[in-house]
Amino acid sequence: MNQMLKKKLLAAVCSSALFLTACGGGDDGDWSFGSSNVKAYAVDADVSAIAAKHEILTYKMQSVAGKDIDATTLIFIPKGSAPSGGWPVVVWAHGTTGAADQCAPSKNVLDGSEKDLVKALLAKGYAVVAPDYEGLGNTSAPHPYLNLESAATSILSAIKAANGQYGSLSKDWSVIGWSQGGHAALAAAQYQKALLGYNFKGTVAIAPASYLADTLDEDLQTAQTKAAAALSANDAAAFTQAIGIAATAYTYAAIVSSGIKAETPSFQYVQSFLPVKVPIAELAESICSPELGQKFGVDIQQYMNTDYTKFFTYTALQPNFKADPVIAKYLTDNTPGTVKLDKPVVIYQGEADTTVPVNITTDLAANMSGLQTDVQLVTFAGETHSTVFANNIDALVSDINDLMTDN
């Protein structure tokens, strides 16, 4: 598979209309891009104060359909003079935003925890490459959500394109990702040898998506448990939270379905969703994840009306969808951490996470360790799916710095 991905990377580079010099005999030849594939990315004063460049780079990658497509990545380069050998690179792999074109980070404002992380990395002297992933930011190609090889190709192609465009970058790199991006970070670590001539240092994965079928089952069970406790206590706020957990689970199931369709165009949403719920699930291709979650939340509310006990009989999914061979294959093929990774991995996980449950990530880390991967799992009591990222920026950057300097 690494050899196949290497060929994809080289083919994408050589076929690019933006490629100005002929491809040489190897992956490490000199190559450059014209300025037409770079445009400014607007940031606030906090970021511009420490970033010499904040741009959107368009590059070529090969899609899961085997076609050369345009892809986009954000590029942030620190102010000042690059160290000897160039600015070391940290890839930021973003969390779930949705599968629609407008959900691409390059089409949205950098803010919140992602902004804090980028600033902290720049302040430490790292250039940041932050790909949108295949299909995001490109209206002519779908997004293969949680597809391991697609995520790896997106990241590795972005690194190579950035190194070709900007002469001040080192070939030393690491990757940090959250949620979907944690899955993508592990994918990049699995396939990193396809990027010849580069020096991969390791991975930090924050609440990475894995074991998707088990995650869905546990999330829906958590929603039911919380709803039962809320009704018993007459706690409206807790019951609303339970609805949100269920709606989020169905949202991810819909986006995964869109990812399966991106790889297998003959796939139909009715293979995973009940016919009456398909119109909502199909919105995964046209709206972003927060809006899709709201749609499922409203549907749950409408189903219950004023009989809140009906929450326990609501379902959007086909009863045996996991037995569908196309779905089963996609879930199996795109599980991260199933081979030994050659460089260290640090995983952050909140114990109060209702999106990626702690026991799912504990199993992932244990299985990776069983394959002799150097993996460290760090759990945080009381931290949720979002706060385990937001509240630990300094520690995350410290771990990245350790990876970049220790091996």
From TrEMBL:
<feature type="signal peptide">
    <location>
        <begin position="1"/>
        <end position="24"/>
    </location>
</feature>
<dbReference type="Pfam" id="PF03583">
    <property type="entry name" value="LIP"/>
</dbReference>
<dbReference type="InterPro" id="IPR005152">
    <property type="entry name" value="Lipase_secreted"/>
</dbReference>
<protein>
    <submittedName>
        <fullName>Uncharacterized protein</fullName>
    </submittedName>
</protein>
<dbReference type="GO" id="GO:0004806">
    <property type="term" value="F:triacylglycerol lipase activity"/>
</dbReference>
<keyword id="KW-0732">Signal</keyword>
<dbReference type="InterPro" id="IPR029058">
    <property type="entry name" value="AB_hydrolase_fold"/>
</dbReference>
<dbReference type="GO" id="GO:0016042">
    <property type="term" value="P:lipid catabolic process"/>
</dbReference>
